[in-house]
Amino acid sequence: MSSSFSCTRCSTPLPVGVLSCPSCGEQFELDQFTNTLIARRAESVTISEVTAPTQDITVGDDAPTVDVPSKTSPAIPEYDEEVEQLPHAPVIPGYCLFKELGAGGMGAVFLAQQRLTRKLFAIKVISDHRRNSPEHVERFRREARSQAQIDHPNVVKVHHVGGPDELPHFTMEYLQANSLSELLKTGPLAAEQAVKIIRDSCLGVQAAHAQGIIHRDLKPGNILLTTDGVAKVADFGLAKVNGDDSLTFTDAVMGTLRYMSPMQAKGEKATPACDVFALGATLHYALTKFNPFKDLDEKQILLAKATSQESLLLPPNQLNHSICPIISAIVDKATAHEPADRYQTAADFAADLEAWLQKEPTTARPLTGLQKIRWRVRKHRKQITMTLLAVMATAAVGFAAAMTFGNPTSQLPPQSLSAPQVVVDPLAEMEKDLAALQPGEKYVVVGPTGLPKWHQWPVGDAILGNTIFGDNSASFQTQIVSMLKLVHNPMHERYRVRFELRHGTFPGKASRVGFFFGFEDAETSDGERAMRAIVLKYSDFLRDGDQTPPAVLASHKTYIDDERAFQHNGKWIHQGSQVFSGGPGASLLGFQPMNAISRMNDYRTFWCDVTPEGIALNMQFADHVKTAFYSKENLDSGHRPGGLNHTFSNGVTARFLPWSPKRPLGIYANNTTIAFRNVTIEKLPLIKGKNEQ
């Protein structure tokens, strides 16, 4: 029986149980945890390349067998030039960390050169703010252990895991190509390319399942590609190991919402079927780049997934008619709402994908018209039964009523007959009324009292009511950034928005309030949500026990801001705002709350002329009006190095669109209590130049 190890110096296969090379005499130690060889040298971190013969993956007595490539690891890339340690990078003995590859919630990944061999590795190090938490350290080490025990060519290989006395880190193979999410930046993939990538990923995931590990966060950003296009599954940070509940929170929802299975959205126990669904959703996105949840916030997505009775993904060939119906059927089967209707294993999924590539029969086939009817009847048997019972009950009541009215002695009052109810879509009604506006006419979005006609929370969340300030005005309280959408589409390119804002500060904290324009819901390179908005914003700060100092008061400005953020694990990460310089009067002096005890101020009146050329901001003071103008060029540049191309702190990128007035607008609040009233939209004449007040 041949050994699975080879000498790191001369590549000679080592006899079973022998830890010294018969050719060159190199001595080794066996790391029992990662099952890798460590050379006995002054540098104790030299890791061998592991080889093993080709093998098959078989699951179940009658499961298909899928041939996988040899498990011989590719040659570890070398970098002969001298490199310098990044100043902010942690120190890992034996390595020089010279480039940051990315960062996430648990840690950062660095490109590192092994000092002795000059080979390149990727090293993941726990984040500074997680380092002092025993729970997060254990979660990080569990990720390393989970990934290290999977030895498969379609899983990113872990070579070494830091010991208990070291800074938590682990060393992985470095892949010189990009992730699937990077590849998708240019658009959907050709079917064959997408199928090969997901087939490889299925095989890697099946290897994890064979070890009792469920990934729980499969998505394009966690599928990496080698230079020759082989897919490798990465990032087991949310992985669930069977039998280990030490770090699982009750009813915790783990994963990325768009690719999450319905049972995960409900907070149920994760099973391999969850990973099958996520792989199917990833294939769906790779083929179509269609996001059915683009206009929904996190809670709405969770609610939709948890309550829907069927898949929320349209068949791929309905979105793109060039997609093969068989591939569409394979995706439909992988993303079926009920786990029993999906592929039972990731290996089954891989086998169907491989069969399609080889032009062989697949288990998933497009349904005929009659089969679709039968499937829907079986799927919705309960609802159909209830509907039939309701129809029968209604018919019985109708028959009884007819008999009663036919009786001349009947005294049934006619008002007992109820009129049919009409369901009104408030957003559709709003946009219909806005579209009908003539120049000079106004549409009331929010009146002097009461709640808005329609609203949505694209960022943050709060309880919207009308009791906080005691004047029956629309109001809410928030300690995070919350953005309340009042209008989805103004329906015109030239309009004036007028509104009144009032707010109160929290003790000892800065509050920021305002009104946003041009809200854009975009997508990051790893498939997460991103946003950008142009925000008219002002800030106040009030210390406990005294009035705001003059120096602080002088810094209070009303300005236009470029607000950008991205989502990570369902939470918005705001990347700091960028104040536009604008033209004359771009920064307008603000003022503190009027009452130091209640920390509440009076209403402030603003109006903004919004056009394709930019935004003209007007703010009403006691005896005068201040005005500032922000041009389209100014808004598009954002005063950021990349302009509309933005790189966030974790390394992901997003591309935003140029300024347009026909995008959502609404209320912005952070760490404050806010009230708003008399919000109106007035259509402006289609003329160039400055509009008169």
Helix and strand topology:
Layout (H helix, E strand, L loop, with lengths): L27 E4 L4 E4 L16 E3 L6 E3 L27 E9 L3 E8 L5 E7 L7 H15 L9 E4 L7 E5 L6 H4 L7 H20 L2 E2 L8 E3 L5 E3 L6 E2 L20 H4 L6 H17 L9 H10 L8 H4 L5 H10 L11 H12 L11 H11 L1 H25 L20 H10 L6 E5 L9 E4 L14 E14 L7 E11 L4 E14 L5 E13 L8 H5 L2 E12 L2 E4 L3 E2 L8 E2 L14 E8 L2 E7 L4 E7 H6 L7 E3 L5 E3 L9 E19 L10
Antiparallel strand pairs: 1-2, 3-4, 5-6, 6-7, 7-9, 8-9, 10-13, 11-12, 14-29, 15-16, 16-29, 17-24, 17-29, 18-19, 18-29, 19-20, 20-21, 20-22, 20-23, 24-25, 25-26, 27-28
Helix pairs in contact: 3-5, 3-9, 5-8, 8-9
Fold and architecture overview:
The chain is an alpha+beta fold and 693 residues long. The chain is 22% helix and 27% strand. The chain has 14 helices and 29 strands. Strands 14, 15, 16, 17, 18, 19, 20, 21, 22, 23, 24, 25, 26 and 29 form a 14-stranded antiparallel sheet that branches. Strand 1 and strand 2 form a beta hairpin. Helix 3 runs antiparallel to helix 5 and helix 8 packs antiparallel against helix 9. The termini are far apart. The C terminus is likely disordered.
